[in-house]
Write a structure and sequence with these properties.
heterotrimer, A alpha+beta, B alpha+beta, C alpha+beta, A: alpha+beta, Aldehyde Oxidoreductase, domain 4, Aldehyde Oxidoreductase, domain 3, six-stranded mixed beta sheet, 32 strands, 28% helix, B: alpha+beta, Ubiquitin-like (UB roll), DNA polymerase, domain 1, 2 domains, 5 helices
Amino acid sequence: MKTQTETSTETGIGGREYAVVGTRPIRHDGADKVTGRAQYGADLRLPGLLHGCIVRSPYAHARIRRIDTAKAAALPGVKAAVTAADLPGAGDRIVDLGEGATPLSYIRGNILAGEKVLYKGHAVAAVAAVSPHVAEEAAGMIEVEYEPLPCVLTAPEAMQAGAPILHDDLRTEEFGKRAAKASNVAQHFRHSLGDIEKGFREADVIVEREFRTATVHQGYIEPHNATALWNHDGRVHIWCSTQGAFVVRDTTACILDIPVSQVKVTPMEIGGGFGGKIPVYLEPVAALLSKKTGRPVKIVMSRKDVFEGTGPTPGSYIKVKIGARKDGRITAAQAYLAYEAGAYPGAMVAPGAMCIFAAYDIENVVIDGFDVVVNKPSTAAYRAPGATNAAFAAETVVDEIAEKLGIDPIDFRLRNAAKEGTRRADGPRHRRIGCAEVLEAMKRHPHYTAPLGGPHRGRGVAIGFWFNVGLPSSCTISVNADGTVSLVEGSTDIGGTRTSVAMQAAEVLGIAAEDVRPTVADTDSVGYTAVTGGSRVTFSTGLAAYDAAQDVVRQMKERAAKLWEIGVEQVRAERGIFCAGDRSISFKELAAHLEETGGPVIGRGAVNPKGVGGSFAGCIADVEVDPETGKVSVLRFTSIQDAGKAIHPSYVEGQMQGGSVQGIGWALNEEYYMSPEGVMLNASLLDYRMPTSLDLPPIETVIVEVPNPGHPFGARGVGEASIVPPPAALANAIYRAAGVRLNSLPMKPSVVMEAIWNAKA
Amino acid sequence: MRARTQVQATINGETVEFLCEPRQSLLECLRDELGLTGAKEGCNDGNCGACTVILDGRIVNSCLVLGLEAAGSEITTIEGIARGAELHPVQRAFLEQAALQCGFCTPGFIVASKALLDEEPDPSPERIRLWLANNLCRCTGYDKIVRAVEQAAAQLQKVKA
Amino acid sequence: MAIVYIPTPLVALTGGNATVEVEGATVRQIIDNLEQSWPGIRERLVAKDHLRPNISVAVDGEVSPLGLLERVSPTSEVHFVAAISGGSRR
């Protein structure tokens, strides 16, 4: 099965032929990764290394009365113990760590709990010892006296009057206005367009449904890790698995109340992140232990710690109401989104609100969003955070309306498809987007009309959106005498981006991708670079590399001019060849002359770009529902996404396939199965059931290319949007296979069976 | 500190010796005592396959084998898959098919895939998926991994022919 | 003059107007001029000389990294949207 790429020929950018962009070179870190040589955080070995272990709360909500580390400290092999008392106070400080502001006390509190523990697994103390086993033993000997408190676990419950309050100082904020009373609702916002009442009055069909989605985890295979050395000169060196070395630097410096210049972060290779390795958990703790012991300290999370002590994505309660006319035009759409933030405010409900109806041109919209704290781990981003929950609700309601009106589900979406200039519910108009193009590609795909081939089978579709971000990136390129270049950037490489960035530089320079040596550098060696996330690296760091490469070309033209003893205005550069009149010289040949023409050539790029292009992703899913067990088998799955321009098509396909499969797991099996006391009962990879190779068919992909005018090659971020539509598409497929519409995630066998039985009764 | 026992085994064709405590797994011994950090810890309870090695001809989760149990065994880790300076066809296929993204699960998959092809030179896609079901990957969705194994199988058959 | 779209919860402060035409060459000037006509709105948008922590400004459909410093043209549309980043909410 070949992957198709469909290129829009509307603008010049998309149609141009490139030498490197669009090809599939072997990734630069490939040899290391297939031989086991690549160094991930836990692989680090340092002389004198100690091992840390975190003590975690057994209660979902409790006051800490007393912590006694004496017994643990007395165990042979134990070198130090720390608690929140060892951290500088946070006071009232609000910090902006490059991603929007938060009270420092929240970040500090999640790293080591202060007065209260707010979720089962909340870090309370830590020890450092000569081996991981001794550290684990010692952790078990730390005595903590708790006063348990009632806990609350879902957004609707937490929003009720009389619910246990997590933060006495938390007030609901609404655009700068703070409410008077303590609440678990950290924020409420409302978007509205047009006249919602009028819109529903004009509708011939209205569908209103309620949805619940469970907490799910990003499920990266590599647990969090951090090694810290607090050196005798006061400088702290950290090696860790992170999506943002500069975020680790800034956060750690802030928490420890030391200057940013005292902290150096070396990002190790990272074994998956998906948003969950953006927050900081271990680094300040490892640093504290190192300060106390004078030795480097490494902390690696266990899988259980990963589930209980990091940042899953919000569970949610969502209501969606949509009205449409007989002719298929949507007249009104309303959504209520209450997302669980976990222990500290910051649920990604605003992005959910931005995306929920982004595929549609609707005149009358109202969206209410609530950021609600509950006694669960403090949530973090998970691939298009907030959008998957929202799409599950909206895209199943859309499916139901289309069915009621007797209109094909893709045609219905096409009739209402957003395009350039369509106003989104949160206000701004869409810029150039590929919504209709993705829908058309779905409709055209042979999968859409293939026979299902058996009973109890059904097909469903859905479309999703992610806006993508820009954010700062830096890059330098140095020319080597042999015509290769060294490229230094700061975006940790989770999915092959060091190669997609190198390819963009290679294209500008007119050299082969293999002749660019990309390095992801530490925070002392490269300019500020924001996190690897938001589908931004190929776009933003690519732009920085593009600018750095242009800078190199400019300088190389000057060198050619010097060599030929002519004015630089006479020199032209095209695809790696510099010429003036009848003289020409290749980049490689010219590179050999750098010393005699002035010395090193170094190009730089530093960007904080606008021109971000959002990405639409659709999918077609065939399922078979076993009528006796409720098991849903995915028979065939096609992912179709607008990449703008696929810099490295294999890795674009990889993002689409990976996101799709995470969406499938989210839809069918994954959940935090919580006891009423707030304990996750399935905190292992056996019972937190992620898809295996046996659970899946091939994931077919179609890359649609509607070029993004904001990027020189037309690239859009692709990493996230593909996770958005699968749960809805699968729900729509299950409906056609089994006759039941499910409104909760996961759609596990027991849930499917119960729905089937209830429908029969 | 617990008493440590000397263990001798053949790892990647070489006789090695290491000291280990009774409570240390083979995975820990490989990584911490022998510096063979290619096998990874993803869960430490046998549910992700990132620690897969070949032990006396069978693939095992090395986190579920005690270091002491490996005494006298023949073990192949990811570090022993390449033949000298040349990548094994499985390794090359993973690169050419872009069958890895973060690469963390990749050593486990390569070891498991090599073991499959050693036993069954021409497995069907279904057979490949069943064999690899103990290896979790969160990045790729498995599609390109299966293609890589198919490519490696074809490559190995060609070499034999 | 630029058109400013007033966030729904603040429409009460602008006399029920969901959009307001405002002069100004930068977002800061726009907000200052908005405050002249509709007192009280500035403090909902701005704190300590920056946009409030969870607010970004989008000019002509593009979220601006420059915030108050972003330039505004006489035909621009200005929206105040939720501040989103690459996935971190901190």
